[in-house]
C-alpha cells in the first residue's frame, strides 16, 4: 500500500512497516511477521524488515540476494547446520484473513501456519543464541508458493551455492512440531504404446494401441511398490498411472496410446536410478520424462541429526511428499522438516496455529542449538 498516509490509514496498519522486535515473545513476533503481508512476488517489505532486524538485533553476518536474506555465525565450530524458511504466503482471502487475531490459544490469519510461525522461530533463535554449539546458517527466501523456477532457495543454490553448505538442514515448514525426515523424489514420464490405425469396421486390419495398453495397466496394478528403510525411516514408494490418452475418432482403431506415470521414489535412489527403474519396467516402450525432482535423505546417521532427534524428543516419521528439503540433497546436505502448525490448515481460509506449538517449537530448537 505505497500511497498510504497516517491520516488515511487505520491505527492497526501503520503506514510504515514497523521494525520487527526480535526481543518480543514468539507469539507477538509471529503476529508481527504475518501482519506484513507477503504474497508470493511481494516479499520485499518483509525481506527488508527481516534483514534490518538481523543487522541491528544480532551479531550475525547478514547477506541479501534479491529477496533472500542469509544470516550466519562464523565461530569455527566442527559442524554447520542450516535453518530455512520461506517468507511468502498464498494470497489473502476475501475479506482478508489479516491482520492476525489471537483467540484463546490460537493465532489466526494468513501465514500463521505456512510458514511465518517457523520464520518467527528462526528469528528468535538468531536473536537469542549468540554462541550456538554448531555454526548456524539462517536462510529466509521468497517465492516458495509459486512455480519452481522462481523459488528463492533454488536461485540461491545456483548463484551462491557456498551459502547452502551445511552438515544438516532443517526446513521449518509446518509439521505439527514433529520431525518429518527427508522426502521422496518424484518422476513423471509418458509411456507411448504404438498401434496401427484402421477403420473400426475392419479392426483386424489395424493394431489397437488402447487395447495393448491394458497389459501395462495390469502390470502397474499388480506391482508391489518398494517399502524402503533410509537412515532409519520407512518410505513407501508409489508407481501409479495418473493419466491416459488415445484415440482419434469414434470409428478409428487407435494408432497410439500414451500413459502418464508418476513414480514417487525413496531417497535411496537418485533421479537417474529412478528413471532406469521405470525404463526397465516399461521395457520395449518409448519413455519420455516430463518432470523429475530428487528426494532427500533424512541424514539421521549424522551427529547433528542424532542430537537434533535426541534434544527435540518428538515423534519422527518419513516425509512421504516432496518439499524444498530436496533442494539440499543436490549439495549432499541431509534435511528434515520441522515446524509449528498443522499442515492440513496450510493455505486454508481458517489458517491458525496453537500458540503452544509456537512456544514448543522455539523451545525444542533452543535445546538443540543453545
Ligand atoms: Zn510452506
TrEMBL record:
Q: Which Pfam families match?
A: M20_dimer, Peptidase_M20
Q: Which UniProt keywords apply?
A: Hydrolase, Metal-binding, Zinc
What EC number(s) does its UniProt record assign?
3.5.1.18
Q: Where is the Peptidase M20 dimerisation domain?
A: 184-280
Q: What class of enzyme is it?
A: hydrolase
Q: Which GO terms describe its molecular function?
A: acetylornithine deacetylase activity; metal ion binding; succinyl-diaminopimelate desuccinylase activity
Q: Which cofactor does it need?
A: Zn(2+)
A GO biological process of this protein is: L-arginine biosynthetic process
> Carries keyword Membrane?
no
Record NCBIfam families: dapE-gram_pos (TIGR01900)
Q: What is this protein called?
A: Succinyl-diaminopimelate desuccinylase
Which species is the source of this protein?
Answer: Kineosphaera limosa NBRC 100340
Instruction: Provide the gene name from the record.
Output: dapE
Amino acid at each position: 500500500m505505497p500511497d498510504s498516509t497516517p491520516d488515511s490509514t487505520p491505527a492497526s496498519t501503520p503506514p510504515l512497516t514497523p521494525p520487527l522486535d526480535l526481543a518480543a515473545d514468539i507469539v507477538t513476533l509471529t503476529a508481527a511477521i504475518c501482519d506484513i503481508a507477503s504474497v508470493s512476488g511481494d516479499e520485499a517489505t518483509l525481506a527488508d524488515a527481516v534483514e534490518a532486524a538481523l543487522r541491528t538485533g544480532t551479531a550475525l553476518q547478514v547477506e541479501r540476494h534479491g529477496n533472500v536474506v542469509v544470516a550466519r555465525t562464523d565461530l569455527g565450530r566442527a559442524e554447520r547446520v542450516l535453518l530455512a524458511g520461506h517468507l511468502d504466503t498464498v494470497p489473502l482471502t476475501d475479506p482478508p484473513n489479516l491482520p492476525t487475531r489471537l483467540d484463546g490459544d490460537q493465532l489466526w490469519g494468513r501465514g500463521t501456519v505456512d510458514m511465518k510461525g517457523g520464520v518467527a522461530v528462526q528469528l528468535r533463535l538468531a536473536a537469542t543464541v549468540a554462541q550456538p554449539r554448531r555454526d548456524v546458517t539462517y536462510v529466509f527466501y521468497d517465492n516458495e508458493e509459486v512455480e519452481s523456477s522462481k523459488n528463492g532457495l533454488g536461485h540461491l543454490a545456483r548463484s551462491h551455492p557456498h551459502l547452502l553448505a551445511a552438515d544438516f538442514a532443517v526446513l521449518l515448514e509446518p509439521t505439527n512440531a514433529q520431525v518429518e525426515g527427508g522426502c521422496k523424489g518424484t518422476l513423471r514420464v509418458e509411456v507411448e504404446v504404438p498401434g496401427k490405425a484402421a477403420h473400426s469396421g475392419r479392426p483386424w486390419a489395424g493394431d489397437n494401441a488402447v487395447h495393448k495398453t491394458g497389459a501395462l495397466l495390469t502390470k502397474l496394478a499388480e506391482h508391489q511398490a518398494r517399502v524402503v528403510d533410509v537412515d532409519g525411516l520407512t518410505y513407501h514408494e508409489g508407481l501409479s498411472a495418473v493419466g491416459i490418452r488415445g484415440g482419434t475418432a469414434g470409428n478409428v482403431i487407435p494408432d497410439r496410446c500414451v500413459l502418464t506415470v508418476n513414480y514417487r521414489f525413496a531417497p535411496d535412489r537418485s533421479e537417474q536410478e529412478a528413471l532406469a527403474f521405470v525404463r526397465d519396467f516399461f521395457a520395449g516402450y518409448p519413455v519420455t520424462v516430463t518432470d523429475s525432482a530428487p528426494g532427500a535423505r533424512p541424514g539421521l546417521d549424522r551427529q547433528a541429526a542424532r542430537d537434533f532427534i535426541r534434544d527435540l524428543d518428538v515423534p519422527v516419521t518419513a516425509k512421504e511428499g516432496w518439499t524444498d528439503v530436496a533442494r539440499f540433497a543436490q549439495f549432499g546436505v541431509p534435511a528434515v522438516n520441522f515446524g509449528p502448525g498443522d499442515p492440513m490448515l496450510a493455505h486454508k481460509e481458517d489458517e491458525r496455529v496453537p500458540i503452544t506449538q509456537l512456544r514448543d517449537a522455539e523451545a525444542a530448537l533452543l535445546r538443540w542449538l543453545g
